[in-house]
Specification:
The chain contains 4 helices and 9 strands; from the N terminus they run H-E-E-E-H-H-E-E-E-E-E-E-H. By secondary structure, the protein is an alpha+beta fold. The protein folds into 2 domains: about 1-15 and about 180-200; about 20-180, no CATH class. A hairpin with a 5-residue loop joins strand 4 (about 85) and strand 5. The radius of gyration is 21 Å and the shape is globular.
Length: about 200
């Protein structure tokens, strides 16, 4: 009975964990849901366009400083792996297939832009400041090396990324509120413990 109790506790704990979903449309990655960045879950949508068209203004940005944008970008890079199962049930290799991300048509690398702020230059131009996660096709790198990296860039807010084959915006939004796994686990364990104690008392 004790073993059964422990097994059910483990089952409850594992069943409520957040799970990533790679949403594929005609073989192209358009969105990843439930991406964990520092304990917060986000959905990331990939889209071409300009900052002005996508966000409108800086008040719609989820990240407002470079350190948070860097953390998000590094997390994004870590998800660009091999043997990833998409929402269509097919297996994808994002590590080498960087063109599989919506908005990127470059076979060498894909820069996924996470924007965290806007500034105005002395000449009056508005610049969108972003951190880009560069998913580099390792077929073009030195053997056995991983050439992916994260760096900062600034593009004019009216710059349309669809005019280049290597830029795409990573649009981050907080995932819908979900119950904390720890709370559900404790509740389940408590109920099982109560049932176990009641059974033992009999």
């Amino acid at each position: 009975m004790t073993r059964l109790f422990l097994f059910l506790c483990l089952l409850i704990s594992s069943s409520v964990q957040a799970s990533l979903v790679y949403e594929m449309t005609n073989g192209i990655l358009t969105k990843i849901t439930e991406v964990d960045v520092n304990g917060v879950l986000y959905d990331v949508t990939f889209r071409n366009g300009s900052f002005n068209n996508i966000y409108g203004n800086a008040s719609n940005l989820v990240f407002t400083n470079s350190s948070d944008a860097i953390a998000a970008s590094n997390t994004l890079l870590s998800l660009m792996g091999d043997n990833v199962v998409g929402s269509d049930g097919l297996i994808y290799d994002f590590e080498h297939g960087n063109w599989l991300v919506n908005g990127c048509n470059n076979y060498v690398y894909c820069d996924m832009l996470t924007t965290y702020g806007v500034s105005t230059t002395a000449s009056g131009n508005e610049i969108a400041h972003s951190v880009y996660a560069r998913n580099f096709n390792d077929l073009y790198a030195s053997p056995g090396t991983d050439s992916d990296f994260v760096m900062s860039t600034g593009l004019l807010t009216n710059y349309d990324t669809s005019t280049t084959p290597w830029y795409t915006y990573s649009i981050w939004t907080e995932s819908a509120t979900v119950p904390e796994p720890s709370i559900l686990s404790l509740l389940g364990i408590g109920l099982l413990g109560f049932a176990f104690a009641k059974r033992k008392a009999k």
